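Reviewers of the previous submission asked for a worked example of the structure-prediction workflow described in the proposal, so we include one complete record here. The input consisted solely of the amino acid sequence. No template or homolog information was supplied to the procedure at any stage.
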Amino acid sequence: MKNFLAFILLLVSNAIFACGFYPYREDVRFSFFNPLNFKYDSYSDFNYSTYSFSINQDPSGEGIKIDANENLWLQYCKQKVSVEAIRTVLFEFNLEDITDKSTNEMLCYLYKIKDVEAINYLKFAKSCEVFNGFYDDSWERNKITKVAKRTKLIEEAILLSNTVTNRELKQRYTFLAIRLSYYNDDKEKIRTLYDNVFASQKKDDILKYWSLYFRVFAETNNALSNFYAAQVFANAPDKRFMVAGAFNNKVPINLVLQYAKTNQEKANVYLLAGIKTTDQSLHYLKQIYKYNPRMDGLSFLLLREINKVEDWVFTPYYSLFNPSLTSYDEIEKISVKEIFKRVEKDRKYAGQLLEFVNNVNLKKTHDPALWKMSKAYLAFITKDNQNCLQQISKLEKSIPKKDSLYFNQIKIIKALALTANQQAGKAIIENDVKQVLINNTNHKKFLFAIGRELEYKGNRIDAAFLYSKLNERADNGYDSSNYAYWKSSKGKIGYYTDYYSDYFDYINVFYSPEEVQKLISESTKADAIDKFSVWKHSTVKNETKELEDLIGVKYIRQNKLEEALSYFSKNEYRSDREINYSDCMWERENCDYRLKDPFFVLKYTPEFVLQKKILRFNKYTVTQKLISYLKIASNPEEKNKDYYNFLIANCYYNMTSYGSIWEMRRYGYGAGTEERDYPVEDNNEFYECNLAKKYYSLAFKNAKTDKFKALCLTMMGKCEQNKLVHQYPNDYNNRIKNYGDFLFKKNKYYQDLNSKYADDYDRLTSSCNAFEEYFKARR
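From that input alone, the workflow returned the following structure tokens.
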């Protein structure tokens, strides 16, 4: 795995895709072990993600919680005032609001018990608030004034700290002085105040760690600064996000540990070091367990490590994308074989992590349920499905269903293991998996993973049904990280359009006509009325017409015209929609919005024969007419074989990338080189025009005049040129330098045209305006 800043490289490299979307980061990351199912909200800013680290305001969705300062005041007021009253004073009141006339519950309590020291502290703290921050002032007009006022307040805070009798208020005044010194950039003052007041304090409290937070930034010794940062991170949850950034993980950890006096402090150092590590952190887990097994940070670090491992294993295993922290440069260079090699390497590491978890005394851990689930999930990651299911069986008995998040987490792992545990060729969606799929219909990557397991086991039909559910909008709205994006091992990895996110696009490329028909047949079964079948079939059932059209298109790709015609004849969705209606606007003549006959007109070419009436073409009529002409041309008694074979060739040419009715074979395609490696069975035909060349050749064979033969030979050369462009893309890309050589030396048809019909060569190869004349010269 990459180092901590790998995601920065990914962000920069994304510029190569600035003109369009390409899945990356959380879009591609597969995760089934959801950290939000576990109670580690105070560490949520450090949940494993490609955006590490970013502030997570409220991962649990439970609303505002009592923070450390509010809790401190709650204890100070002996639990006799509400948190809301404290919060109002701290965050909403100004200095002028702190009076004995206030109706605020906290202030009423303090005035009632005549706690003048506490009231004066609140007033002083309010007067400092405006100075607790950095302010942009490019001309530094107020900098000297602010520094002077802060300095005066620091001196006053120190004086008050030495004057008040209440120990907590003494510490609070010192903390204010330290914080003001931080914004005054007075590091020496921070060190002096902390070392004199807090360093020797025997009983640790939050005020000490709040003050130590600023001490971290004032320390010049990097190892000692790291040590302080680790102690703040472990003991002051509200400071974790910022102090983690101050930890320099390039400093050798043994230099940091020399300042630790207790096992707890050592564990704290290993915790933050582990948090800042984006590659394998098993060593840190072992050390924390050694020094403080009950530490909540240990359990969180285990959770985070599992999230890393599942990204390393499942993101490439299910989607063929590299792990989410990998840069695009790696994606383009790596092969499918290398991807799976890396997966197996990371599965072995998961096994090492599982070995550690198995040897842990669960009674000593902070969250035994998490560790038990980790055992099950790591067993699944290492492909030990039986062990996983045995662990799940124990968990199902020990964790009550009322713990819905835990219970659903267990069910997701079980569903994955049950599906993966089946024998190849016999895999199905088991009954225990069906309800889990329905309950997690919004978890798109989970649905895809079950489908992918089925596909890997040979059950491509159920896989397609589950892929069809990916297109349904999630109840929780748009979330790009909850969409499934995947590649195919049959496609060329590393292109801009090498991925899929829609089941129709996927089966369009990789499923046979028979498999698509099986999808339709199963989705329309009259007896499939149980809840799961209705859910599973709903998308496909509503898209029967589109899928029937797809079958027709697939048969066109196989040149099975009769079979294609039978599907186009009963389909009212795409097949009866007029095709090539927009191509007229690009013709060299004014076509008056007539639909061009693909048998008589080539794209960007004038008509060979003037159409006397407006024609409407769709997939059915084109296929029907093509079959008719093929029958006529194959008749031994037919005298116009040259004519009909030429029209057939025109139609086949128009069904290619270069023609006007490419919709007969495709549902959309681009012009980039990546499309030329599209893993569709007729990809060569689509770009090389081989069938068109075959029938132009038959037209040439049966031609009676030199001019028509020259036209046929020209079209054969044009097809050959397309083939050369497809087979030798580098030569094509450099053809400006040697255009003549490219067209002539490698193209035997153009060579024949030049040698046998020299007078016609220039005219036919330089312009298509003469095609009509040469076509009419057929007799």
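Residues 1-20+34-52+278-411 form one domain. We consider this example representative of the routine output the project will generate in years two and three.
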